[in-house]
Amino acid sequence: MRKRHVNLIIGILFSASLVLVSCSSDDDDGNGSFPLSADIFHSVNGKKVAFQGLTHSATTWSWDFGDGTTSTAQNPVHVYKDGGYYDATLTATDASGASVTKDVKLALDITPYVLLTGGATATNGKTWKISNGHSANDYFANADADLTPFDGAPNPLPGGIFGSGLGMAEVYDDEFTFYFDGDYKHDVKADGAAFSGLLYQFVTTGGAGIVNDGGADFGLCTGKYTPESGATFTYVENEDFTTTSVYGPGGAITYGGVSTLSFSGTEFIGLMDFERKVIIQNITDKSMRLVMFLAASQDYIGVNTNAVILTFEVVE
């Protein structure tokens, strides 16, 4: 009986030793380490970003912040000079030289100017064109203080009206590119013409510049235009903008507290007429809505009678 108990005890101890050996063997096979991996955690305060490199088995870290600067710290803090869109990249490397890369997209301090130009990293600028689809806020207005709708035009403007309604679909093709450094480019496409005021064409070219007068009933046409090389633009976020108007005392009206775009030389966006400065009513990453002025009365040459309020979309 005593021998049977001894054998039982020996059996239990042997089984326990097998479990311990097995557990020890599992740990030893993996050497207690994880495979190389990396991830990024970040927090943002304005243009200041705190990065954390969440890695396993890495011995070195290499950061590219997307603005031409780098770091080898595991958890760097970086202050970007300009607001905009950036791709920050972390490359983690282990002792054997193997590496893994992770990246994160940042949108920092996105101002209307960054929305307009694409920011400092948009080396090709940001290109816009008049939206064929229009929006519920696109209409033909009087150039009065409230930009009231013009009675003779549909409100809102239906999609594609300049093509299907007026036979000037080429108006939707022209492209306008804004660069972060203030440069500006304008592409009038194959017809070499721009959306224009009809009266403006008669006054400045005697009518010789008119290419398509399909919008004559609304004082609109397309007219020959050669974009300027080396053109620039000026964006003002908030100003009191005074322009001519048949509705204003003394032939002028001031629009208070508006954002504006103006251009060098003869350049413009959207509509070529006597007034080249435009009001930005709204801007997002993909669309903006502009107020462009039109002088359409032979009794008041060069004085605004109307405004064309149109949505522009980004050219992808």
Automatic annotation (TrEMBL):
**Could you tell me which Gene3D superfamilies the record lists for this protein?**
Immunoglobulins
Q: State the coiled-coil residue ranges.
A: none
Domain PKD positions: 55-104
InterPro entries, per the entry: Ig-like_fold (IPR013783), PKD/Chitinase_dom (IPR022409), PKD_dom (IPR000601), PKD_dom_sf (IPR035986)
What is the name of the protein in this document? PKD domain-containing protein
